[in-house]
UniProtKB/TrEMBL annotation:
SUPFAM superfamilies noted in UniProt: Flavoproteins, Metallo-hydrolase/oxidoreductase
GO MF annotations in UniProt: electron transfer activity; FMN binding; metal ion binding; oxidoreductase activity
Entry's family note: In the N-terminal section; belongs to the zinc metallo-hydrolase group 3 family.
Organism: Adlercreutzia mucosicola
CDD domains reported for this sequence: flavodiiron_proteins_MBL-fold
Ranges that cross the membrane: none
PANTHER family linked to this entry: ANAEROBIC NITRIC OXIDE REDUCTASE FLAVORUBREDOXIN (PTHR43717)
InterPro entries, per database record: Flavodoxin/NO_synth, Flavoprotein-like_sf, Metallo-B-lactamas, ODP_dom, RibonucZ/Hydroxyglut_hydro, Rubredoxin-O_OxRdtase
Protein name according to UniProt: FprA family A-type flavoprotein
Domain Flavodoxin-like: start-end pairs: 251-396
Taxonomy of the source species: Bacteria, Bacillati, Actinomycetota, Coriobacteriia, Eggerthellales
Superkingdom, taxonomy of origin: Bacteria
PROSITE patterns, alphabetized: FLAVODOXIN_LIKE (PS50902)
Listed Pfam families: Flavodoxin_1, ODP
Length: 396
């Protein structure tokens, strides 16, 4: 028997726990995930969001633990994406008269595009309210955090912000609250989620945070992971910091290598940063997933990327990383392209071009090394990297 969990009097978590999800549309989810839905018991019983379609049975079972699902009057759909709306068709079959509340116009259009014209939709805009009894829900559209239709729902009576993807983390747990699992563990997943899902929309996050400052809440109930009740100020601070786009004095060295010369260069670049007192992290693309690397990109001012030449181009692992990073658009970074080659430095040159298209500040040319490493070449690389980075480090 699946149980609902009361998170405040008459407000229940009724979501699904995806313990074994390990790849969420290309993003590795080593801790699984949850699809959080929330049931509010008032004169008009209201469900906030649904779940990914395979978890619909779990959702309905948890709702049934509290009420007959046929008694739901409203379903708020904060976000069209199918991990939150996948349960709508099944719910609409049980309660055809329930009104589905969604953002106007993008939510309305999006839900129609996904599920056809049969849903009983009501569009709302920022500041619109819905009275459900002693509670009044207020809707705030948060466009591009992280889709055009995204919105959050504020419950003033309970002081809860139902934030959908914002402040979420892919984290499956038998616990529901931040203080039950420990802040550092949750922040790792919150940072990874922000970096892989929200990073390109920092300006929109800043705007949303400004709007939300007018609302007083002591609980943030996101659509993935644990609920924030003890560490609300901490996660708000993190979102302020991450959305500012202001990186830390920190270098991330990312590379792939066939015969270890590019690897030796990566190690030497890391040593150069350590000598300058700048914290460093070195990640080999053969053993690190790009979605894990992106959590580091979020904070690093310096991003060194190395590839040897393989068949007149860069290595496919490096190309995939650069393609993914360009889409997530970290701004204001210093790039350090490097790599080894046999007879033509196309690999490191293409890394350079890709970092240029990311709008990174770059040296005049990539740091290259023909064939295998030697001490003299590595010492020269070490000194050149220090010389280049000193231009920015002194100013930081
Ligand atoms: C399968 C293969 C294809 C290669 N293709 C090229 C090439 O097109 N152009 C080139 O200049 N070097 C090419 N090389 C040589 C490597 O770029 C060279 O060995 C380099 O030093 C390897 O760097 P690494 O030790 O970081 O892997 C190739 C090497 C291999 C193994």
């Amino acid at each position: 028997m699946l149980k609902a969990v009361e998170i405040k009097p008459d407000v229940f978590w009724v979501g699904g726990i995806d313990w074994n999800e390990r790849n969420f549309h290309g993003y590795t989810t080593e801790r699984g995930s949850t699809y959080n839905a929330y049931l509010i018991l008032d004169e008009q019983i209201t469900l906030i969001d649904t779940c990914k379609r395979p978890f619909t049975g779990e959702l309905i079972d948890r709702i049934s633990d509290i009420v007959d699902p046929a008694s739901i009057a409203y379903v708020v759909s904060n976000h069209v994406e199918m991990d939150h709306s996948g349960g709508l068709p099944a719910l609409a079959a049980i309660v055809p008269d329930a009104t589905i509340v969604t953002g106007e116009p993008k939510g309305v259009r999006g839900l129609r595009a996904h599920y056809g014209d049969g849903l009983n939709l009501m569009g709302v805009k920022t500041g619109d309210t819905l009275n459900i009894g002693k509670r009044t829900l207020t809707f705030v559209q948060t466009p591009m955090v992280h889709w055009p239709d995204s919105m959050v729902t504020y419950d003033e009576y309970d002081k809860i912000l139902f934030s959908n993807d914002s402040f979420g983390q892919h984290y499956a747990s038998s616990k529901r609250f931040d203080d039950e699992v420990g802040l550092p563990e949750v922040l790792v997943q919150a940072q990874k989620h922000y970096a892989n899902i929200v990073m390109p929309y920092g300006k929109n996050v800043e705007a949303a945070l400004k709007t939300l400052a007018a609302y007083h809440f002591d609980m943030i109930a996101p659509a993935h992971g644990i609920i924030w009740r003890t560490h609300v100020p901490e996660i708000l601070d993190c979102y302020r910091q991450w959305s500012s786009g202001e990186p830390e004095e920190y270098v991330l060295v990312v590379y792939d290598s066939m015969w270890h010369t590019t690897e030796a260069m990566a190690v030497e670049i890391t040593e150069a940063f350590m000598e300058m007192g700048i914290p460093a992290r070195l990640l080999d693309l053969k053993v690190n997933h790009i979605s894990d690397i992106m959590a580091e990109v979020l904070c690093a001012r310096y991003i060194a990327v190395g590839s040897p030449t393989l068949n007149k181009t860069m290595m496919p692992t490096v190309a995939a990383f650069l393609c993914y990073m360009r889409g997530l658009a970290p701004a204001g970074r210093v790039g350090i392209p490097f790599g080894s080659y046999g007879w033509a430095p196309m690999g490191p040159n293409e890394v350079y071009q890709q970092l240029e298209s990311c709008k990174f500040t770059l040296p005049e040319a990539p740091f290259t090394h023909q064939w295998v490493e030697d001490e003299e070449g590595l010492t020269r690389l070490h000194d050149e990297v220090i010389q280049f980075v000193s231009l920015f480090h002194a100013k930081a």
